Structures are given as C-alpha cells and as structure tokens.
Structure to design on (243 residues):
C-alpha cells in the first residue's frame, strides 16, 4: 500500500508492529515505511495551519519534554507514537538520549545529526561523558534511527538558515518519564522532565538541599506513595544527599 498521509502510515505501521518484529527488524524495515511517510507531500500542512490559526487546537497540544515537539499520533495499544520536531536555524539543541527505539525522517529542508557514545560508566550521579562517533546531513526523505538509552545518544539541528521538520516514530519506552541531556563541556548529564511533572521533580530536588527533618519526612512520604519509578529515584537521590 502506498503511504500518502499520516493515516496511511499509522495503519501500515500498526500492522507491521502487530507481527511482533524484533528491534533489529523494526529499525531496518520500519525505516523504509517512515521514508515513505516523509517523502509524501502535504500531509503535515493541516497541523501547521491549525497550530497557527486555531486557538483550541493549540491549547489542546500535548506538552512533552521537548518544547519543539508536536505529538501527531499515539497508538491505542501504546506500541508507538508519531511526533514532528521543528528545528530552528542557529539554535542550539542538546545532546540527548531516548527511552525507546526511534525512527526519524526528514520532512522539510535538511537536518544535521551528530551521534555520540557514552564513555563513562554512569556510576556517579550527575556525571556523564559522551564522545562524537559520527555526523551527517539528511535531506528530504532521509532517515536515521536511535536505540534506547545509551545506544541512541544524538543531537539534531537545522542546516543553513532554514527551519527543518523531522518526523519521529517512537516505540514503547523501556524507560519512562524523562530523557537525559548531556553537556560535553563539563561532562554532566541532566534528567529532563515534561512540564506536567517538572515542578514536582524540582521540589523533590530542592528538599535534597534542605537540611530539615520535615524535608526527610516529605521525601519519604512521596517515595512511599508514588507508583512512578522516576519519582522514587528522584526521592532516593534527594534522601541520599542528606548531610
Ligand atoms: Fe532524539
């Protein structure tokens, strides 16, 4: 079946995933399906038009950890999602990892991708060292991919003076809640959260720097109450910082 728009893509991709492909097969064959999607013209126009002209559409947008991301589709069985990323020219975007595999195709203009590998063992909280392993420019219809956590650390940016749009298909996350941002200059790694939980995480981190009994109590209560692994982890890190 020829893929002409997002509806065609999501049907074809759902059928593909329903067959239970291994990750290797998803990357190899899924990339071709994404290539067809990003090579098809026009299907993103309506979304961009609505973002600009329709207040309700704008208000209804999902806010993820990346402010330049537009969620286009989430499968009902949560097996995959489709997002558009807008890369502005001359803007710095951080080196980051992902919670799942991801297939990426260029829809508008060109995108530069740099791939990195992590070279420290992650044993020291907040420290993370990465090394550049490759760099390339992708034009319209060009594709790349990422794997979960340390196997897909990369950075994307626009080329020349034109905003670029890339389409990303992500699988079911093996790690949920946050992504990690790397700073190559001071060898640090930072867990970045979406806006709906960020304030809670910041408050938890604040209590890790407040040497008062109520702070310990609140962190312990939060740790016991939450069902989310990343909240538990943030509480544990703040509790371990007690002095
Ligand atoms: Fe990415």
């Amino acid at each position: 079946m020829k893929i002409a728009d997002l509806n065609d893509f999501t049907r074809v991709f759902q059928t593909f995933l329903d067959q239970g492909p291994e990750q290797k097969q998803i990357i190899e064959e899924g990339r071709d399906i994404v290539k067809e999607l990003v090579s098809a013209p026009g299907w993103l126009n309506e979304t961009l038009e609505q973002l600009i002209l329709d207040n309700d559409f704008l208000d209804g947008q999902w806010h993820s950890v990346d402010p330049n991301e537009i969620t286009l589709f989430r499968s009902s069985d949560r097996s995959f999602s489709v997002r558009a990323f807008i890369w502005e020219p001359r803007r710095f975007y951080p080196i980051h990892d992902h919670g799942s595999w991801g297939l990426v195709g260029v829809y508008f203009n060109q995108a530069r991708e740099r791939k990195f590998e992590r070279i420290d063992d992650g044993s020291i909280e907040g420290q993370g060292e990465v090394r550049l392993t490759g760099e390339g420019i992708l034009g319209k219809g060009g594709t790349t991919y990422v794997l979960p956590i340390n196997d897909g650390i990369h950075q994307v940016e626009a080329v020349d003076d034109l905003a670029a749009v890339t389409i990303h298909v992500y699988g079911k996350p093996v790690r949920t809640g946050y992504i990690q941002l790397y700073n190559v200059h001071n060898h640090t790694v930072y867990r970045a959260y979406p806006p709906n939980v960020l304030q809670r995480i910041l408050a938890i981190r604040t209590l890790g720097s407040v040497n008062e009994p109520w702070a310990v109590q609140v962190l312990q209560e939060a740790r016991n109450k939450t069902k989310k692994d990343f909240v538990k982890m943030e509480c544990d890190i703040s509790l371990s910082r007690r002095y």
